[in-house]
Amino acid sequence: MTGGLSVSRTVGRLSAVVLALFGGACSHRDRIVIGAKNFTESDFLAELLAQQIERRTGLPVERRLHLGGTYVCHEAITSGKIDLYVEYTGTAYTEILKHPPIADADSVYRADSLEYAKTLGLTWGRPLGFNNTFAITVRRADAEKYGLRTISDVARIAPRLRAGFGYEFLQRADGFGGLARAYGLRFAAPPTAMDLGLTYRALAQGNVDLIAGNSTDGTIQALDLVALEDDRHYFPPYDAAPVMRTELVTRHPEVARALAELAGKLSAAEMRRLNLAADVEHRDIAALAREWLAKNLP
Amino acid sequence: MTPVLEVRDLSYRLPGAGDRHLVTALSFSVAPGETLVLLGRSGSGKTTTLKLINRLLEPTRGEVRLQGEATATLEPYRLRRRIGYVIQEIGLFPHFTVAQNVGLVPRLEGWPPDRIAGRVRELLALVGLDPDEFAERSPRALSGGQRQRVGVARALAADPALLLLDEPFGALDPITRVELQREFRALEGRLGKGMVFVTHDVREGLLLGTRLGLMHEGRLAFLGTAEEFRRSNDPQVKQFMEAA
Amino acid sequence: MNLLRFYGDHAREAFGLLGQHLVLVGASTFLAVLIGVPLGVLLTRRPAWRGPVLGLANVFQTIPSLALFGFLIPLPFLGGIGARTAIVALVVYALLPIVRNTYVGISGVDPAVREAGRGMGMTDGQLLTMVEIPLGLGVIFAGVRVATVVGVGTATIAAAIGAGGLGVYIFRGVSTVDDTLILAGALPAAILALIADGLLGLIERRLAR
Question: How much is the pTM?
Answer without folding.
Answer: 0.79
